[in-house]
Design brief:
The structure is a homotetramer.
Chain A: E1 19-25, H1 46-62, E2 67-72, E3 113-117, H2 128-134, E4 137-145, H3 147-160, E5 164-173, H4 177-190, E6 195-196, H5 198-207
Parallel strand pairs in A: 1-2, 1-4, 2-3, 4-5, 5-6
Protein name (chains A, B, C, D): Cysteine hydrolase
Keywords (chains A, B, C, D): Hydrolase
GO molecular function (chains A, B, C, D): hydrolase activity
């Protein structure tokens, strides 16, 4: 029984099970360079990831595979902040600030769902599980951030709720390199097929039949 | 904003907030040397931790501070195993096997609660939150294992449910050294006061008034 | 042990415990006469209740006692409708329709929370519990509808989550007279102090100290 | 739109959807005449229902259709009683008392699940949803009591979690005749096919193929 995960190279094969939903977690910033004010210590990678995330979302839309958007938001009063100021983060994702807005191009369309959440896991105090059941999804694909916080804890809840999850390792960014890598290892510990490349997602999308336009 | 946690030395000061409950997570094995069959790759430390855990539990009992015991159990049919075979772990914690039993000395007394769980977080599909509210607890102290799985994910849910959590770093054991340390860092990321020594817990217990025996 | 509730006269005394939050459940219709298209069989009372609900909400705002607004909404695709078409109701609360909008005067202010829900209980798949904890509420006051569906099942969850609940009997309307009354009896079965008049709420509000205006 | 349910005659056709699980809710009493001490005001029917419930459970076992047993239990300390003393019920289902035990013949076999719950809904703070997913159930059949409390609120949660539920009207007993009937109407409001006779369950069971004995 070799429990410890020592190789966390992503797989080139998505291997989804049942229905698929793409979950875009907390890609915010409203087009500003950074979602936080003083980002000197943030793990880099957002500027490269964000346009790639837009491309992936648009590819899902073309094939009519559902996308759900997650946005962390707190009222300026911080009534809903819980214990989120007891750790490394200061006040963040304040409603009304530009940097709290979704990244341009990642705003939901009328038929798509936006879930505004108050905690790290996208399942906590939200309708995410209910919507995934509505879509008859069994596999959730995760992109966004941060790898070691909202992505990791969303993956844990997906796992505990019996979903297969796939984290796109080149489309997630962590709070720092080490915790980013540790979170990937922890996710692979949970599901050995969970780490994938965006390339593998595109290859799977190509196998999804095109949607025929139905005249209205 | 320095998000990344680079120092995870435990604190010598428990600093509990409000009511306290000790949660003993998955200290199983039934007295066997190991809770799993082939443990060559397991992070060592259980043999040293277990008697210390018994001592701590007894000290809580003396001061009438509540203790809740958590035990992971799965039916031999594995109906309840969910996705737990999709990762690093094989079938584990099978009902009826000796190694699934609680460690001797850690069996709940009649007035104490035992929560048998099917997933990693002790809050998932259980009455833990309800019991903590019943005890009017605001701080949960975590001991047991594994640091990077059941302890970490129980801490995350405690955090999201607005509890203060304290992980006793010398009384938790992980799946491996690296993920053990990464999980401690992740917990400190959530709550900067969350890592403590068993020494600090004992020092706090000394400040709890002795319970006077009431004649029946 | 006389279990059955035979008298469900509301109390003239609110008797709140701890912090109070007013929860306005599904007062929708967007100013139309009715929230449903064909309302011949609906229990009457909405036209009288709605302006009274606006007055009560404004009185809470004056005293800075928090108000949370609940709105049932479903996408036109009905992905999120669950089993809600298996019973008496047809498609309802469709996003984008005028009758799905909140009643005029009951739209949340920027500092107030709006919870859009997909099921009957306002706690199911929502952040309501989390927000009530944030407000340090122990008592929830319920107005809106329908008595025997969303009000009843929200009250049940509040009860099970250890809140004291108060249903304002002259500000709730049911699907029909008999089920309206049966639901009031069921709520009184759960908490004997749970049925109150709007008069009792106003009398309590008078005891809440006025908020002094703080210069900005 | 005729919302109100005026006819609650049970159906003679079970019409299950997908996998089926029988959920036996709170049939307790340990063989005593009554599960409560002073039962003068209790709706009668338990003495007739209980042996019929045993027969039905045994018929499910013969066809290997899963049965899950629910038992309400509270510690003598009442730490876990929540708000359940604020209404019509006094202290009830105390651990260790004979009347808290399951009715003879309704004790789970080793391969069957027993869920001990602290609140009225069998889903609240329990693993029921997780187990139903494990059994791949989409339809739950409810028997036991009380119709207007634990049965009703379990049905509501089943409904909100997208299960089809069937309440066997001749195998449930309420707190009183009127609330028993009102709860049946409320359940039919939720799912128009939800009220069935035990006869219809037996007729469906006959269509389930016999299990061939596999030599060990």
């Amino acid at each position: 029984m070799a429990l410890e995960v020592t190789d966390w190279t992503p797989s080139g094969d998505l291997k989804p099970v049942g229905g698929v939903v793409l979950v875009v977690v907390d890609i915010q910033g409203g087009g500003l360079n950074s979602p936080v004010e003083n980002d000197a210590n943030l793990m880099p990678g957002r500027a490269e990831r964000n346009p790639k995330a837009v491309d992936l979302v648009n590819s899902f839309r073309e094939k009519r595979v559902p996308v759900i958007f997650i946005q962390e938001v707190h009222k300026p009063s911080l009534v809903d902040i819980g214990r989120e100021l007891d750790g490394s983060e200061g006040p963040h994702c304040i409603e009304g600030e530009q940097r709290t807005r979704l990244h341009p191009g990642l705003e939901p369309r009328p038929e798509e769902y936006l879930i505004q959440k108050r905690r790290y896991s996208a399942f906590f105090g939200t309708e995410l599980d209910l919507l995934l059941r509505g879509y008859q999804a069994r596999t959730v694909i995760l992109i966004g951030g941060m790898t070691d916080v909202c992505i990791h804890y969303t993956a844990v809840d997906a796992h505990q709720l019996d979903y297969h999850f796939r984290t796109v390792t080149d489309l997630v960014v962590g709070s720092g390199e080490e915790l980013h890598e540790a979170a990937l290892r922890a996710m692979k510990y949970l599901q050995r097929d969970s780490l994938v490349t965006s390339q593998s997602v595109y290859e799977w999308l190509e196998t999804v039949p095109a949607v025929e336009e139905v005249p209205a």
